[in-house]
UniProtKB/TrEMBL annotation:
The protein's name in its UniProt record: UDP-2,3-diacylglucosamine diphosphatase LpxI
Family annotation (Pfam families): LpxI_C, LpxI_N
EC number of this enzyme: 3.6.1.54
Keyword terms, alphabetized: Hydrolase
One function term, GO molecular function aspect: hydrolase activity
Origin: domain of life: Bacteria
Organism encoding this protein: Taurinivorans muris
Length: 265
């Protein structure tokens, strides 16, 4: 791999991947999206372009013109704003061909279009494998059995919901499902659940069973922990070796300070 194309969403992940790839002597072309991607990334990439969501033909042409051989997906796309997509002809044909239009189905279809053009897709996590959370209790306190019980209760349910390509996160409390992540995203789901059930909720976030790990992995970071604390959550369970944990040291220090329990199952 000498020339990498990064399909860049929001957050810090595209920047981290670009920096690591360039350390390895790889030419990096980045393509982001209006109202999602930080346009200051243009200072990091060797070449950079911003497009509107849905301009699939221009996205592919950009990487072709820069002789990119490998591509990776990094960063988040604001789901409600994605409803405003104005697809070009190629994207419209692709969307029309899909039986379902969940995140995973759409991303896998887009990946298929790139593979038809000869690009090889690689997981962004291969550049920074240390971002994947290790297994076990990540905070510094023993988790009470009632909290651990809710975590173990929610884990297979989250997996089941993911098999329908709905979302990666659910919220549980006292053996009941309080909220399921849909179009609004994880942060809004956490807020909605706290308004419904008050203090002591447990968030569970997992990879979908059908998910292509090269395209999308569940992720958490400092902002996630800040939200959990603000909304008076008791704990968070994530999937070990599959969940990207950004700013882990700082986030876990904050969780420990506020007594938030975190485990990777």
């Amino acid at each position: 791999m000498t020339r990498l194309g990064i399909i860049a969403g929001g957050g810090q992940f595209p920047k981290l991947i670009a920096e690591e790839a360039k350390k390895r002597g790889i030419f990096v072309a980045g393509c982001g999206f209006h109202n999602n991607t930080d346009e200051s990334l243009s200072q990091i990439f060797d070449t950079f372009q911003i497009l509107a969501l849905g301009q699939l033909a221009k996205l592919i042409d950009f990487f072709k013109k820069n002789n990119v051989s490998h591509i990776c997906f990094a960063g988040t796309i604001n789901k409600p704003k994605a409803l405003d997509i104005r697809p070009d002809l190629r994207a419209a044909k692709l969307i029309f061909s899909l039986k379902t239009k969940g995140d995973d189905a759409l991303l896998r279809a887009i990946l298929g279009e790139f593979e038809k053009e000869g690009f090889q897709c690689v997981s962004a996590s291969r550049f920074l494998p240390s971002l994947k959370s290790p297994q076990g209790i990540l905070t510094n306190r023993t988790i009470p059995q009632e909290i651990l019980g809710d975590m173990r209760y929610g884990f297979p349910i989250a997996k089941s919901m993911g098999s329908y390509d709905i979302g990666q996160c659910i919220v549980v409390k006292n053996g009941m499902v309080i909220a399921v992540e849909c179009l609004e995203g994880t942060d809004a789901t956490l807020k909605r659940a706290s308004e419904l059930a008050g203090k002591g909720c447990i968030a569970v976030k997992v990879i979908k069973p059908i998910q292509d790990e090269r395209i999308d992995l569940p992720s958490i970071g400092l902002k996630t922990i800040e939200n959990l604390i603000q909304y008076n959550y008791a704990g968070l369970a994530i999937e070990a070796n599959k969940t990207l944990f950004f700013d882990r040291e700082e986030a876990l220090a904050l969780a420990n300070k506020h007594g938030l329990h975190i485990i990777a199952l």
